[in-house]
Fold this protein.
Amino acid sequence: SVLAASASFAQSTSPSEDTVPLLSLISDIAKRSGKRFVVDPRAQVDVTLIPRKAEPLSYAELLTVLHVHDLAAVEEGAMVRVIPDANIRNLAVPLLEDTAERAEADYVTKVIPVRTTPAAMLVPMLRPLMPVQAHLAASICTNDLVIVDTAANVRRIEGIVRSLDDGEEPYTPRECAP
């Protein structure tokens, strides 16, 4: 019957013991890491973890949880800002060095040199592969791409650029040549 189906649906969507306030997760990580967190009021969400394990989340796992909820963490010394990810490209997210280990959901900035293809021609092709909050721009005179996104997506975009940038002659923009 319709009533039984409605009751079943209501049971399956009700809050459960797998739901925990995001602030509780952040508080736990703050205690263990010694980092101080400043949390945007828009980050007051409940998180569903299935199954909810007894051991606490790692910082990398917290970044993934934030990403799922359209939030991001930006470290500034011993302080970590938790903000809506729509604001991420306006903040000083760290530069991703080639040897740096970063959590996949950590937001980073990367300069990607492009050798044989005009970097500006890659932007319209790559931009649809990025979320709205990410940033991608071409530096015409240096023929570089500048990207702000999660470390995982930056590495993916960098791999695509390497695949597309396989010509033999280096590209030199005419308007910037000496």
